């Protein structure tokens, strides 16, 4: 026998998820999803109200000295598409208010030193030396004479 847990939805009590779903015109899985997400007023009686899950897609944006609630709001106030606003964040013109990097920015400049000359990235060093950036990276990783990564990288 399955043990039913009593559910409270906006002050109304129900014996289980199915009963709550039938009364509200939705499936039991939808009721469960609302409970798990911490929707205010939706909870199991034995568990109590859960904290609302943070919205990971919405991050405050700092654009032109003004903090906006989301990237979409910043884009709308400047009259540009969201894709252009995202490019402005990735380009460093705007930034997220929490100071974190933009999603999708995994490739960072890797400073390197070759024969005592510091370069800001592997690509810049490769262009100056006439070789590819991957060749510079491999030489620094294999500790060739004069090649080394900066900022504590191997």
Descriptive overview:
The chain is α+β, with helices and mostly antiparallel strands. It has three domains: 7-44; 61-96; 112-149. 33% of the residues lie in helices and 17% in strands. The protein contains six helices and nine strands, in the order ββααβββααβββααβ. It has helices at 17-24, 28-36, 71-78, 82-90, 122-129, 133-141, and strands spanning 7-9, 12-14, 42-44, 61-63, 66-68, 95-96, 112-114, 117-119, 147-149. Strands 2-1-3 form a three-stranded antiparallel β-sheet. It has a three-stranded antiparallel β-sheet with strand order 5-4-6. A three-stranded antiparallel β-sheet has the order 8-7-9. β4 (61-63) and β5 form a beta hairpin. The longest helix has 9 residues, at 28-36. The radius of gyration is 27 Å and the shape is elongated. It starts with 6 loop residues before the first strand and ends in a 5-residue tail after the last strand. The model has no long low-confidence stretch (mean pLDDT 85).
Summarize the topology.
Blueprint: E1 7-9, E2 12-14, H1 17-24, H2 28-36, E3 42-44, E4 61-63, E5 66-68, H3 71-78, H4 82-90, E6 95-96, E7 112-114, E8 117-119, H5 122-129, H6 133-141, E9 147-149
Antiparallel strand pairs: 1-2, 1-3, 4-5, 4-6, 7-8, 7-9
Helix pairs in contact: 1-2, 3-4, 5-6
């Amino acid at each position: 026998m399955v043990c039913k847990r009593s559910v409270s939805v906006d002050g109304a009590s129900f014996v289980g998820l199915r009963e709550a779903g039938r009364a509200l015109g939705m499936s039991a899985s939808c009721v469960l999803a609302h409970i798990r997400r911490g929707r205010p007023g939706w909870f199991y009686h034995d568990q109590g109200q859960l904290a609302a899950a943070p919205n990971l897609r919405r991050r405050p944006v700092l654009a032109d000295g003004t903090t906006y609630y989301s990237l979409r709001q910043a884009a709308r106030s400047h009259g540009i598409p969201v894709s252009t606003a995202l490019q402005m964040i990735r380009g460093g013109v705007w930034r997220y208010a929490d100071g974190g990097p933009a999603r999708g920015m995994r490739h960072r400049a890797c400073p390197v030193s070759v024969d005592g000359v510091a370069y800001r990235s592997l690509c810049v060093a490769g262009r100056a030396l006439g070789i590819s950036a991957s060749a510079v990276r491999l030489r620094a990783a294999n500790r060739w004479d004069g090649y080394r990564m900066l900022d504590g990288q191997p």
